[in-house]
Amino acid sequence: MISVCLDKESEFEYFFSPNNYLGEARNITPKKIGFIGLGMIGRSIVTRFLNSGHNVSVWNRTSEKCQECVAAGAQQLSTPAEIVYKCDIIFCCVSGPEAVKSIVYENNGILTGLEECEPGSKGYIELTSMNHVIVQEICKAITDKGGKYLEAPISDSISNVQEGSLLIPATGNRQLLEDCVSCFHAIAKLTCFMNCEVGTASKMNLVFNMLRGFTFVALAESMALIKEAKLWHYDFVNYLSYGQMASPFVTEKYDDFMQNNLTLDTSFKYQKKNLELAVQLNNACQQPCPMMSAALGICQIATQRDVARLETH
């Protein structure tokens, strides 16, 4: 059963995942799922797909990274083109636009596979966070070859994936989303289908990441000021918990900072990349966003100081 709520003002459709999705009877898509990109996020997604009963085949440029997924029940294939031949719906989750372009355009890539398939028989879902212009370019290349396209960029943390609590914006082919909504239920508590205009979800994702970047910076600076003003951090957190700004995210990060736990659940490299993409969107829209530029500057300083080594592995 697909749980959908239509927002009449925005016309967004919200696909809610059932509670305890992995542990209850559910309608798993009979479609064969292909997955490309087995970094930390990708492996966690494939694990959720397999644990919920999906038929999954995988490919990664570094083939050794497939071993964990194969041991869990996935089939390893040799090229992106073979993923297209043997699977109905292909998910892609890689480091960025250059990696996506190589997977799509290179020999034995996605387009090679689509050339040998019946038009309309294959679907491609992009989970990689990218500039909306590149997303539209990739979409056109795939649809011109007869593939169906959906963008559904992921920007949350590894723990959100492992808990199945992602928030995912999606645009493009709505039927493709419905065909594999059980995959989205396995990893997301909410998937929001915005419209059919590819690129919209990427913009929304970047604005979300911009806000998160601001929040990290504001948390760090407020804690530094609390210390210099000779206030108590715990008093501030308790005070904050009664106000409108209270949130699990803010409380969790404050607790981490107070315990000197600087490990990053979301890869620092990808946080920085998403802020850079948000700056590109800002420039394209000619919208002054000085705080975003400041947050990116702090990320660049942190990179110089090797803070990125603290990210989780």
Automatic annotation (TrEMBL):
Record-linked Gene3D superfamilies: N-(1-d-carboxylethyl)-l-norvaline Dehydrogenase, domain 2, NAD(P)-binding Rossmann-like Domain
Stored Pfam families: NAD_binding_2 (PF03446)
Protein name: Putative oxidoreductase GLYR1
Keyword check for Oxidoreductase: yes
Biological processes, Gene Ontology terms: transcription elongation-coupled chromatin remodeling
Xref: InterPro entries: 6-PGluconate_DH-like_C_sf, 6PGD_dom2, 6PGDH_NADP-bd, HIBADH-related, HIBADH-related_NP60_sf, NAD(P)-bd_dom_sf
Oxidoreductase recorded as keyword: yes
The family this protein is said to belong to: Belongs to the HIBADH-related family. NP60 subfamily.
Domain 6-phosphogluconate dehydrogenase NADP-binding: start-end pairs: 32-192
Keyword annotations of the record: Oxidoreductase
Gene Ontology CC: chromatin
GO molecular function: DNA binding; NADP binding; nucleosome binding; oxidoreductase activity
